[in-house]
Every structure is written in structure tokens, then in C-alpha cells.
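Changelog note: in this version the structure field was regenerated for every chain. One regenerated record is shown below for reference.
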Amino acid sequence: MLDSDLPLRLSDIAESSAFSMADVAFISGLEESTVYRLLDKPEWLDKISGRSLQALIATVPGLGDYVAQFSVLSRRRKLIENLGAEGLQVNESAIVRCVAGGIPEPYLSAALQAAVHIMRGENAKASSYLARFWGTGQDRALTALFSPETGTGLLNNTAQLITASAEVASHVSSKSYSFHAIISQAVFGHYIGKATGHIDVDTLPDVTDRQTAFTHRSSVMGLLINHNDRELAERYSKLVAVTPVLKTVEEWSFPTYTRDTRPNSDFTLPRSLLLRNTASEILKEIRSKDYSEAYLYYLTTVYLPIALNRDETFGLRDKELLTALLECSDRSNDASIRAACQSVAQQIHRSAR
């Protein structure tokens, strides 16, 4: 295995495969002079053209793995250096654990790059980065970035990032009404609430348009997922029932988050939509022990009735959902959750007739 933590020379990689310069040039179809210019330069990856690199990757065993690993690790080192200059300590062992847990390192790198912009107070750049983090895979990366738990969070001193994020968020909200601003403002509210449990929803703006609705929803979700605030769940359920724009945002959020459809700036969904990915995510959440009962109350009283009105087959998994709801009802000691599960189950039965 090549040591991808070092800038290996092309000659080192070729020799480990028992190839000489002439062998590499002949098999790759490149001119010997081209290979010779690159062979012993530690910075050869900065010098090579894309076409030549493709030819070499197809020729030298292990070269493709080295290029991919070295590129990722080079970016990681640069990010650690930049964040260190801003006073943040990166927990590199947590990065390794996150990757082993299935989070692609490019997602983690993008999250750390967003942290650089946040710490520097670069509002526009931070907003542009965070606006790209609406999705299930990206969610895990940002959760790790903002996590205050020792050993699992990407940072050893998350509190500084959260303080800086609150400052940037206050500026993002005052910017022009744009899709990026809407997403980034909501992302800040969601992950700050998820990490700390201390966002005061009474301070959120009244729900008057898509931006305030999405920010309100995201902040509430951050609190409900990790913090069992039943009063908040009930309050939110009642608010959705009487606020059409919030119901629109609710209907839009899961399908775009799971990529059943692409996010769009007008918060509309296709007329016909099969909720395949949404069904997988919701079923996982209902069966998981990682979500609070307040969040389960939200799912069963708010989102699932809306989802079944949009797609009564629930991504062709309505029977599976029915079973999961009945199991959830059986294991819950909360009478209102049991009643909500039964209500959604009845909605499924009515649709099946």
C-alpha cells in the first residue's frame, strides 16, 4: 500500500510496480520526454495535464488510488491549517471515524471549508457553501461539524463555531430574498438548535413567507430531533394546520432532502411524485431509537398525513409503513403518539379501499 500521506514521486509509484520510465512511457503511449519531466518531481501532480494523467492511471497499478487519496488528504491538511489559524481545533481521528461510518470525505471537507468562511465572517461564501448542504448525505457531515460531543464531532471546540455561526446568520437573514439565503439561514437554525438545544423559537420571525416558514421549520426540526420537547412538537403541529405556507414547506422538505425530486426556488413539487427515498428515510426514523418521542409525534401528526395525501402508496411501501406504525404504537407509552399512529394507519386503510 502506498503511503498517501506523502507527496510521492511518480518514480516511487512506478518502481513499486516494477516499471521503469521507459516501461511507463511505452505502455501509456506518452512521450518519454513527458514522463521524464514528471518522474522525480514531488509536485508532479501540479504539472501534469488531464489527458496524460488519465493515461498514467490506466497504466501504473495503484496510481489512481494514490491520486485520489493524496488529493483528499492534501485538502484535509490545508483545511486543518486554515481552521487552526481561526482558532478551531480539528479532531482528525473523528474525520477517520466519520469516513469509516459512511460519510464521504468530500462532504466533510466541504463542511470544514464552510466553517473556515464562517470563522472569517465571509458571509456570502459561507451562505453559498451551506446552501449546497440540503440533503441526507450532507446532513451527516454538518451534524458532525456542529456536534459538541467529544470524540464524534469534527471540532474540539465547537462552541466558537456556533457563536460565529449565529453572527453570520444574522447577516444572511438581512440579505436579498434568494434561494441560497433561504437555505443557508435555515441550515444555521437547524444545526445550532440540533447541537445546543437552546434556540428560542419565540425569537424566530413570524411565518409570513417561504423564507420565514423554512427557517422556522428547520430550527424546530433541529430541536425536536435531539431534544425531547413535546410542547414544541404540539405547538408546531398546530401552527402547520393553520398556516398554508408552512404546510407547503413541509410537503416540499422531505422529498427534496431525500432527492425524490430536486430542490427549487419556488418550493413546488411535480404533480406526480413517488416518494421512494422519502419512504426509506421515514421508515428508518420510525424504527430507530435515536429520535425523540417529540420528533415521532411530529412525524405522525404533521408530515405523514401530508405525505400520504401527496402519494398514497408512500413510495410503494404503504404496507411497510402500516406495520412500522403499529409497532411504534405498541412500544410507545405516550397515548397521543399511539393515537396518532392509529390515525395514520386508518388513513392508509382508507386509501387502500
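Spot check on this record: Residues 72 and 335 are 50 Å apart (CA to CA). Residues 86-196 form one domain.
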